[in-house]
Sequence to fold (689 residues):
Amino acid sequence: MDVELILKVYPYFLKAAWITVELSVLTTVLGLICGALGAAARLSRFAIVRFLGAAYVSVFRGTPALIQLFLLYFGGPQIGIQLDAFCAGVIGLGLNIGAYMTETMRGAIISVDEGQGEAARTLGLSRAQSFRKVVLPQAMRLMIRPLGVNINAQIKGTALVSAISVVELTYTAQRYIGSTYKPFEMFFLAGILYLAIITITGKGVAYLDRRVRLQ
Amino acid sequence: MGLDFSVIPPFYGTLALGVLWTIAITAASAVLSFFGGILLAVVALYGPLVVRLPFRFVAWLFMGTPLLLQLFLIYFGLAQIGVDLPAFVAGVIGLGFHYAVYNSELIQTAMVAVDKGQMEAARTLGLSRRQALMRVIVPQAVRDVLPPIGNNMIALLKDSALVSVIGVSELTLSAQLAIGRTYRPFEFYAAAAVLYYVINLGMEAVLRGFEKRNRLSR
Amino acid sequence: MTQTHPFVEIRHAQKSYGKLEVLKDISLSVERGQIVAIIGPSGSGKSTLLRAINDLDPLTSGEVWLDGLQVNKSLPHRQYENHINEMRQQIGMVFQHFNLFPHLTVRENVTMAPKLLKKISDKEADALAEEQLDHVGMLERIDYYPSQLSGGQKQRVAIARALAMKPKLMLFDEATSALDPELVEEVNLVMKKLAEEHMTMIIVTHEMDFAASVCDRVIFMDKGLVVEEGPPELVFKNPTQERTQVFLRKHLEGAK
Fold:
């Protein structure tokens, strides 16, 4: 292992890791918004809205995220969508993870609604009231852990934007592998940083999960 | 520049070849990830400590880093130590090993959950520990986690697009090839998306059918 | 050599888990073709003793012999594994919870071990499965999966599975305890049939009536010791030890 080289290049990796963190945060936020909207759509009373929700999930989970990203970034200009690489990355990956989060949230809501929603409605609460006061608060607790799994996958998923030249961790590692011919060192360096981001995020999710379970 | 899907037909052959390669690399990697997953699970649970500990470390490393990064490591790393693999083989190893680690986690959990009486019954008949593992414990564990392993294989299909970056001429790279000639990214990426979607549907149907057939033996 | 040895012999069997001594210096022997019942309260060590015979629960000290060979011979690990696998092929065992292999059909449950260990052909294996399943009255369910069978049927298949290895000795570990009362008889009938064919059997059981009608000898165990043994008519009718009397009184009252 070429320690000298690692010490020389690590500042660039740190900078790149920060971009990966930014991407992860922004795509997660966008993913949560898309997921909430998607889940609402899939549970809607209107068949057409349910269909749109189902189509969103099916298309985005049924095709590779890389293709979605390329379609948006390279194909977008043809239909009047001009985005820089970073924005395209955030929007593309956010929409993609949103489809997975839709299913996570929907699953949690359904599993609570089966017993609890019925109980609330027999007490005389309206559908909307029982959803807001009874179902949603419980479903939120239930979905934290599986959403954590989605977020974990998403952090690794940000590597895809290296293919549209966003200078994040994987792009940086790839470039230095090309110029130094030291793939193991570069993998090691980038790997440690990914593991750090993922471990810290995992701890955060676990903390949140414990907190809401105590309430 | 508007959309013009009439640019696609001249490249039907290119795309078809891409589809075949995508199916080939997915199938090969899926097989590797399946049997590799079983092997890794058995080693992780029953191997000697000197094998178990490094294995846990590598599993942790591979589950905590992006597949794309791992593909670069395998493709360029193996070249560096003198093993010059064709891109296709490097892609299969990368995809297959990545998913083998995930499958192994599933299988390990299921193996631990198999009733203790199963091992006892097998050993009582005179089977060795290894025979009991391979004939009794592993088949039951694998059967129990077939649905999530199937989900991993469907995820693997979509991740097979990543091997385009190391030069495997599967569907994504075929689309890029056509784009290089026509400068029509939207049309060809959309076409690729449709093709992936169809392969995905086919694969889901096959896996569900397989699971149904397996339901009785539990 | 003029010296004859018993068919099954347990010499000074002792077993402890930490400070807890579950078997305290037990010696007993069983002749070829004999049927022996081991009875006693739960926690008396009777299952542990049975499971020591095929080394499923290894003894802390003591020896187990079968037909002139020591089962729990001390050997280097590799050699011991080969040795014990061969010994176990000669000792059939039937469990309380059947432990059929759920991923295999009834036929495959019976043929797996003979095919694997005795290298018999598919054709021979099929004939063997049919013979053994016919013997226990389960031939018509040969291509079912265990999940499609009742408890009594599962246990009969488990007996056929053990018999397919042509064992010299059969061990029954509370083979009917997990069954619904109406399913006990079909399993008892199979065991009686084996008794009539002079299979050597050691049976851990709660069923005093069955033990009395089938067995040549009854062993009463309590707290890791053999308290009393003898022919069933003596042990059941005129137990000499107080602990046996107390146990039998409780048990026979409970049963009636």
